[in-house]
Amino acid sequence: MAACRRTRAERPRERGQGSYAVGDARRQKILDTAVDHFGQWGFNASSLARIARDCGITQGGLLHHFRSKEDLLLSVLAQSEQHDVERLFGVEPESYAAYLETLVALIEENTRRPGIVRMFNVLVGESGNADHPAHQYFKERYARVLRNTVELLEQAVRSGELRPGTDCLGVAQEHLAVMDGLQIQWALDPSSMDMPARVGAYLRRQYAEIAAPKG
Fold first, then answer.
1. What's the CA gap between 50 and 78, in Å, rounded?
2. Are 127 and 137 in contact (CB under 8 A)?
3. pLDDT tens-digit profile of 158-191?
4. How far apart are CA 87 and CA 89, in angstroms?
């Protein structure tokens, strides 16, 4: 029995840990709800009051976790990007071909997160306006993704996996354009295509064009 007793010093710490867990869960619920709202109405037409109501809290309670609607938006985008980065770059790919396989696996995972895909498409369209709070985020994100893809392609050329003289920038730009275009079509009508299969087929064709001859 003595082993089960807790000291007074332990009890407050346990209550504090429980409070942190509740706070983290509430913060995550706000983020998940915001994804749905931004995906359905975009940033400008979404309201903190409606997001808070759907979370079962007051707007003041929401503002305890996020300073403003802009802060909530950027937090949602940061969480989504962190997930993608961890999936794509958590382990150094053995080859460019292996990276493409990981990319298709991520796309397959995203088909089970349609809210994220829908939100991304809506916000990218909105952020073409330089005054949009996510304009700089998406500008930097595309530059970063393009740069990382070009670096992987250039490394594959140096290793002999891809043909010498491959237009790495051009390949990377086409790669992003096709993926985003297919993602928009899928988000509008998920039954219209098997998105991972379609993207995988394109990437395999693209890879076959630039792969170094074997032997």
1. 22
2. yes
3. 999 999 999 999 999 999 999 999 999 999 999 9
4. 6
Indicate the pTM of the whole model: 0.81
> What interhelical angle do 114-126 and 69-89 show, nearest 10?
120
From residue 121, how far is each of 4, 125, 127, 186, 211 by CA, in Å?
54, 6, 10, 11, 31
**Contact (Cβ atoms closer than 8 angstroms) between residue 210 and residue 171:** yes
Dihedral angle, C-alpha 64, 65, 71, 77, nearest 10 °: -160
Backbone angles phi, psi at 137, to 5 degrees: -60, -50
Spatial CA neighbour of 76 closest among 46, 116, 45: 116
pLDDT band at 3 (very low <50, low <70, confident <90, very high): very low
The DSSP code sequence of 68-106 is: SHHHHHHHHHHHHHHHHHHHHHSS--SSHHHHHHHHHHH
Helix (H) and strand (E) counts in the chain: 9, 0
Q: What single-letter amino acid sits at 110?
A: N
Domains and CATH numbers, the chain: 11-210 (1.10.357.10)
- Would you place residue 209 in the very low, low, confident or very high pLDDT band (cuts 50, 70, 90)? very high
Q: What is the pLDDT of residues 16-52, one digit of tens each?
A: 556 667 678 999 999 999 999 999 999 999 999 999 9
Structure tokens at 14: 């346990």
**CA pair distance 166, 98, nearest whole angstrom:** 18
User: Residues 127-153: what's their mean pLDDT?
Assistant: 93
How far, CA to CA in Å, does 155 sit from each of 91, 113, 158, 160, 171? Answer: 16, 32, 5, 9, 14
